[in-house]
Amino acid sequence: MVSEMNQPALNSQLSTIPQFVWRVVDVIVGRIFIYAGAIKVLDPVQFATDIDNYKILPWTIGVGLAFYLPWLEIFCGLALILRRLYLGGLSILTALVAVFLAATIAAKIRGLDITCGCFGHASQNWNFPAHLALDLAILGALLALSFRVVSGNRLQNAV
Amino acid sequence: MVKSSLVRQALLLATLAFVPGLVQAIYFGDKFSWRSPVPASEMVTVTQARAWGENATWVDARPDNEFARDHVPGALPLNEDRWSELLPQFLAAWSPEKKVVIYCSSEGCNASREVAQRLRKEAQLPNVFVLEGGWEEWLKTSR
Amino acid sequence: MKTHIFSFTLSIVLCVTARAGLKWDQTSIELHPTATDKQAIGHFKYQNTGDKPVKFRSVRTSCGCTAAQTQKEEVPAGEKGEVTATFNIGERTGTQVKTVTVETDDPANVTTVLTLKAVIPQQLEITPTFVFWGQGEEPKPKTIVVRAAKDFPVKHLKVTSSSPDFQTKVEETGKGQFKIDIQPQETNRQTASTLTIQPEDSQKIFYATARITNAPAIQ
After folding, report:
1. ipTM more than 0.95?
2. CA–CA distance, C137 with C217 (Å, rounded to integer)
């Protein structure tokens, strides 16, 4: 676990950013995922139907994902905000967004158009660039948080 | 050090998320089916439907030309192309103690589910069922 | 750090493999037909960005109400074309999602699912569209609620019964909201009536059914 007491000033630009800014980023990103998860938790059958409408995944897998993914997002979002199981939450969310982004970009390159984004039914009317921009921003924030953890650890081990 | 705690935490979170997901799936149990997009309590197999005998009212949700070619004996046509024209004759034949069995061409077609949905929601009929496997399944068991 | 490398490598791999075949402008089209339209047509445009011709193997629709046609069986390299999906609305209402599954001989992209979403405006919502009494049941009035959609203002509703055995009374209960009370004269014999519901200033006619059935009603 990373100790928050150790923040010696080093070459790393990240360490010059005050502690509370990182906490704000944690909370914002955490809340985005809790919101995204909550929207889908309210109507998992609708989410399963949205997934099924694209006829890419078999119905059974779609239903499984529809019930599991939203809760995973909520728990990981909470992990970020409460700083419990923080590393685990951060890595799962980063992996989720990275895979989702890669799949979306791949689909776009191949000419497909997947508009069922991470915000379920609410984001139906957004266009691709808006989706992409938001997802990249979220990924950026998650990577920055990860990098901070990793560099923080290196400092610890060096000391 | 970091790596092992990361894996441990990630696994813990992944497992934790499983629990409410499972509870929710059980809670929603009768509102959906794992096999297909129609809840289990609203589907019926050909065997079950046949067993209902005279108590079943059969409805063919396929397009008119398919109904004309062949259909379940005694079935009434009711499709969304001519809904307001076909509905009154179906309602005239319906009675409260009967079970309505709706079919379209196969497991994959949507028409029977949509007709079922409309009968339940708009006409507020009880005991409306979708035939599992549709017309294809009926043909298999009647030969 | 690791995820950086992961995404980067993945996108390179994907860029390399996605070199071939048909590229679609859109694979998902949303249409908003008017209340009087009989069909909703989606034009799915594509271009063959690969260096080999692409042949269509099959074009299947998710229901009999949708027909799909490709303009050509084979698309030479560089050429453009479209798959036209025609959805016959019939008397469907609400949001309808129909798919067209296209199979080609392009190894990188054998199956493509084109989605046509039609949002069909519903002028009136009538709940329920069917009321019934069992033979011998007390002939109490039953209520049908009619709600006009937000963009279809209805000031007055005209309701007529096809049979004199049933009496109807219309009452406005709110802006664009009405209730129709329907009552049979008696329930001794089986009889039925088609209620014709017509909004003032509208050509469109809506229907509901009232009936005396042959068994005690289990409602």
Report:
1. no
2. 8
